[in-house]
Amino acid sequence: MSILVYVENIEGDFKKSAFEVVSYAKAIADQTGDSLTAISIGQVADENLSKLGNYGASKVLNVQNEQLKNFVNKAYGSILAEAAKSEQAKVVVLSNSFSGKGLAPRIATKLNAALADGAIELPEISGDTFKLKKSAFSSKAFATEELTTAVKVIAVNPNSYEVKETGGSATIESFTPSLNQDDFSVIVKEIVRATDKISLPEAEIVVSAGRGLKGPENWGIIEELAEVLGAATACSKPVSDADWRPHSEHVGQTGIVVSPNLYIAIGISGAIQHLAGVSSSKTIVVINKDPEAPFFKVADYGIVGDAFEVVPKLTEALKKFKN
Ligand code: FAD
Predict the structure, then answer these.
(1) Cα 216 to ligand 1 centroid, rounded to whole Å
(2) ipTM of this predicted complex?
């Protein structure tokens, strides 16, 4: 018996969530006493595949096929279900990412498995029963579910489980799935990137701004700081609601959950709904002109000052530091 974990890549590099789900699956495997097999689909180099050993996978199945270079929901679902059967997996773990949201129910149906999507904690395991907490309705509610089927599928929310290195190593095996024409009834012909910006859920540094910036015309100072730091940009909900910034940048309870090494919050009050999306950041820096702003309570470093004065000075200082 084994635990199977699906690892997503972008153009051959694993996403941060890939290491999260391997760490999550490894913690389950340690409890159940099963081996952990990872499966990768697409053009990923062996040196990247072998990195998965360091997070707890003892074997990596590598599916390389020109037709599978781009994500195809139906085909990927068939491959993962086939691999789960051939590995006698009793649990399939994947990220509850955009593609994971489509894949998880497909795999669960094919395996006649119970599905927990949006898992935010490890399951409590008692015999064949897994009890686990998941978020629902964009984290407005939480549910505890019991999975009692022989095979279980768990889709883990990105940034909800910490990556853990184990120092282990993995063997790499190629896996050739038996796909048919029907699996390719939808084909992705081309992927056009909407932006070259760093992806927010994956970012190690995030520069985020709120209503304190007064209007969209003032975002130049935020983008400049982000560029100097190699950071992604984010915002509070009212900012995206007002169309100052795109909704894809909205962080918090009803937006994206981030977990960067550094989160810089500029002109954001620190409402509880915003903090819900940033509280697992390693270091939080707050810039706010109100010393009583609630965000300072969770800040590692705080600057009380006007963003329009502080941010350009910070950017200039960082530019000098870099040169
Ligand atoms: P404000 O609360 O208006 O704060 C602006 C801050 O800027 C203030 O602290 C002010 O002191 C400071 N400031 C003003 N001028 C300057 C200056 N020149 N320099 C420096 N600082 C300055 N919010 C989210 O962000 N994410 C969510 O996911 C989210 N989900 C929600 C879900 C529900 C069900 C509800 C009810 C609310 C939700 N909200 C969410 C909204 C949340 O409650 C707050 O209203 C919101 O986060 C406030 O945004 P803000 O901090 O940008 O604006």
Answers:
(1) 15
(2) 0.99
